[in-house]
Amino acid sequence: MSNKGARGRLPARFSAFDLMRRRRSWPQAWRERDLKSTYDVVLIGGGLHGLATAYYLATNHGITDVAVIEKSYIGGGGSGRNTAIVRSNYLTPEGVRFYDRSVKLYEELAVDLNFNVMFEQRGHMTLAHNDSSLRTMRWRAEVNKLEGVDSSVITPSEIKQLAPYIDVSDHSRYPILGALWHPPGGIIRHDAVVWGYARAADAAGAHIHQNTEVTGIDVEQEKVTGVTTSRGKISAPIVVNCTAGWSSLVAALAGVKLPIVTRPLQAAVTEPVQSFLDPVIVSGSLHVYVSQTARGELVFGASVDPFGSYSTRGSLDFIEGLAGHVLELMPSLGRMRVLRQWAGLCDMTPDYAPIIGPTHVGGFYVDVGWGTYGFKAGPAAGESLAQMIATNSIPELIAPFGVERFAAGTLMGEKGAASVGH
Ligand code: PYC
Questions:
Q1: Which of 79, 81, 83 has most ligand 1 atoms within 8 Å of CB, for mutation?
Q2: What does pTM read for this prediction?
Q3: Residue 3's pLDDT band (boundaries 50, 70, 90)?
Q4: Which residues pair with 289 in a beta bridge?
Q5: Nearest CA to ligand 1 atom 2
Q6: Is 18 inside any structural domain?
């Protein structure tokens, strides 16, 4: 039997050797470029935020003389260490508007980037186990509705219909009283998002420099003049700190002090099983969230660890606690095996909202403090930063997130919507 495909050009099956041979002729999705000594814009951090900013600078504003500087490989930091949840059911109107813009951009992203980012809007459900969390869910639902975002409080029997494996009986240890139901929420393939933005930013002219560490930020007379990297100096009138995990240390290189503490957030993934869980399930009181990937694995996460650290290793204590809480929600998962666990680094601000905008150093901007919500924010943050750089003015969408709010005492108060209890 012939192994020619229907169109006669491609073999119908590929062997591993065949794929390796072909790989040599595949064009690189993003290229290795020489490090120039000058760029119009330097973005520090080759994660989702840096790459999205490079993409929107080029496509929305025609600014292409841009370098994305990444100390490791692209997407190897927070962008590769999250649980890929997308939602906009926040508590403050400013937060809801901002994250809703991100959801809208995510909805169009596969077409925009011509890259399958596997966004699955399967719904996002936050369970309430006591009166005070039910009250917060009602509050969030009302704010969401006022902002045009689809959210409502549902009953235990509605929960059971949407997620039959959840124990909604009244004899469980933490009985479920209701939930905030947010149909546009869901999960996305985080690597694909990073790769899609990187490929598109590269094609539009941005230079992506991996394995290049920023070791200094050059400032003269309170104005940024460039950066020093492990591969040489770059002069640039605009430098943006788009890092996660090390954002306060990077900002300190420019003499900018940020109110951020860095804490690990641990997560784990199980063996794959047949699909049984459609929505993303979150329990703030039990400090756990769970979703099932298209491959069938369950992805679990917790709240941030109660100590500052730069470690990205998982711990036994975490996995024991997590497993116990997952079983309280879904007792039938008792025989599933955990395959691996990891931690991501979360830069926490006092009000659980990010810091985006200018600093007291002219030309030095920050897009940091993304706590446990950075991945879902990437597209809207990149779009807004690009607009800010191109127009030299602060877009309305990010105006509430400036660093000056800490001195002014106008904090955001987003803690009640930060995924799980902190
Ligand atoms: O804010 O949805 C969230 C989230 C999920 C995991 C960590 N944070």
A1: 83
A2: 0.93
A3: very low
A4: 282, 301
A5: 419
A6: no
